[in-house]
Amino acid sequence: MNARLSKLLHFVAGDAQADRVVPPTGYTARLTVFAAASMAFLAVFALALSLATGRLADRWGEALAKSSTIRISAPADQMDAQVLAVTEVLATTPGVKEARPLSQDEQRALLEPWFGPDLPLDQLPIPRLVEVIEDEEGIDAEGLKARLAGEAPGAVLDDHARWREPLVRAANRLRQLGFVAIVLIAALAAVVITLAASAALSANEQVIRVLRLVGARDNYIARAFVRRYTLRALSGAIVGTLLGSLAVFLLPPAGDQASFLTGLGFKGWQWLWPLAIPPLAALVAFLATGQAAKTVLQEKR
Amino acid sequence: MIELEQVSYGYGAGTLLSEISLKLAPGSFHFLTGPSGAGKTTLMKLCYGELIASKGRVTLFERDARQLTRDDVAQVRRRIGVVHQDCQFLDHLDVAENVALPLTVSGRSLSDESELEDLLAWVGLSRQRAAKPPELSGGERQRAALARAVIMSPDVILADEPTGNVDWDMSLRLLKLLVELNRMGKTILIATHDMNLIRSAKAQVQARVLRIANKTVQHAGADL
Ligand SMILES: Nc1ncnc2c1ncn2[C@@H]1O[C@H](COP(=O)(O)OP(=O)(O)O)[C@@H](O)[C@H]1O
Ligand SMILES: [Mg+2]
After folding, report:
1. Which of A198, A236, A300, B133 could bridge across to A37 with cysteines, CB 3.0–4.6 Å?
2. For the ranges A165-174, B120-129, B181-190, which has the lowest average pLDDT?
């Protein structure tokens, strides 16, 4: 582990003389840095999209997974019978995990913020509430409504959270697409850097020949190229990540509303995520150039 | 050090060199002559592992050249200093860096910076140390290539037409450097078709002449 670490440090710190052995190629160098910066910039946005839609999906999903409520309004003398009827209907409804009429105390607690603690609940024509907790499958809201209408005419199924279901699905899909975008960006970065490195290696055929003639091993030659491209990808990615993060930071502030567009961004510790982009870019460049160098040097036997 | 036994080689179909046997003993001084296109450069490449014999056996420092891996070849190159016919340099590095290149790529550095200065002074390139290779004259390139070939203190020095495109005075100067190296115990092989150079050398060291003719090597006698 320690040896590996010192090897890595040595690689990063580098050997100035060894680097000079490969001629500076201003043009592909700038292209590589620019490509890495652009990809990192895009990756920041893909990441922000993923995380924001993830938050959204979680929040909306929670609201969904929570209960629906059945509200029973009936004359006082029929109330208990209707509550019983509703409970029985729910007991035979597929998708219901648990159904429970709220107790007087619970209802009082719900109303307290509006009417104060001394509400004489039993004397008021307040509807009774039955909390329905759904299982994984969920209930068929329309079917339940129809049955309730038959068995307990005073009961109303309040499924206000249900309209969000397609949105949650959309948000989840969007989160997945965000991750796919990140993977694609990484793959694209690998492709671009491989092409740039292969082009540089091929353009430096003469250099490779001279290096071999003076006794350079393939490893040494490869390392000179790999190091250069890794550092370029790293520096480009740092710039791109900074700019991307800044752009996300400067987006108009999000309200508490989970509105999609204004919610794009990072929250709290999520700001740490973009930090992973530059090292990842460097790793991708390291592997891609290493592979390219190996292939090219193998060909130029 | 370097030994060829019944070695044949051909680019593509025909054979260029056929059943060649020769041995470079430590401390020996050989010339390799023959008309242009006879295969002098090819023979040299066989001697430093750039080419692999199609038939026969090449032994480099007690090892069969055919068995050498790429890394082994790189290792062998550090023990054989080669002055190439078309001295190839890295044009973006200066003369001093090019001369020190074998050290650089082997991860070593000179124990003393002044060694490089001494070496440059020895080949008369002190003033050109910071020049880039394209700015050098033919003779200067040859001397820089020689300096690069000896910086690793190799046991063997192979020089392929080192006096190819330089004037007579410069040829003698280069020869003097190679003779000095031989006196220090290095094994020397020089490919050339310059008979005057060979005569001049024979006055200074005990040099043997190998001639490529009819695809094979003949040990030329004293008939020069
Ligand atoms: N890489 C090569 N591919 C094909 N033919 C070659 C190659 N190198 C040299 N030759 C041919 O081999 C012959 C010998 O070349 P060379 O060894 O360079 O001769 P010399 O050094 O004696 O002038 C020449 O006819 C040359 O055209
Ligand atoms: Mg030749």
Report:
1. A236
2. A165-174
Judged against a pLDDT cut of 60, whether residue A255 lies above it is answered with: no
- Exposure of A120 by Cβ count < 10 A (0-12 exposed, 13-18 middle, 19+ buried)? exposed
Cβ–Cβ gap A215/B105 under 8 Å: yes
For a mutational test of ligand 1's pocket, the pick from B42, B54, B83, B160, i.e. the residue with the most ligand atoms closer than 8 A to its C-beta, is: B42
From CA B110, how far away is CA A217, in angstroms rounded? Answer: 19
Contact B178, B163 (CB under 8 A): no
Contact B101 A214 (CB under 8 A): yes
Q: Does domain B2-219 have CATH number 3.40.50.2000?
A: no
Q: How far is the CA of A262 from the centre of ligand 2 (A)?
A: 73
Return the pLDDT at A16: 58
- Which ligand is located closest to the Cα atom of residue B212? 1
Q: Is the pLDDT of residue A263 over 70?
A: no
In chain B, domain spans: 2-219
Residue with the smallest CA separation from ligand 1 atom 26 is B37
Residue B14 makes CB contacts below 8 A (sequence gap 6+) with: none
| Cβ pair B93:A21 closer than 8 A | yes
**Ligand 1 proximal residues by C-beta, below 6 Å:** B 11, 16, 34, 36-42
| Continuous segment of H or E residues that includes residue B9 | strand B2-9
List pLDDT tens digits, range A74-101.
887 888 888 888 888 888 888 888 888 8
The pTM of this model reads 0.71
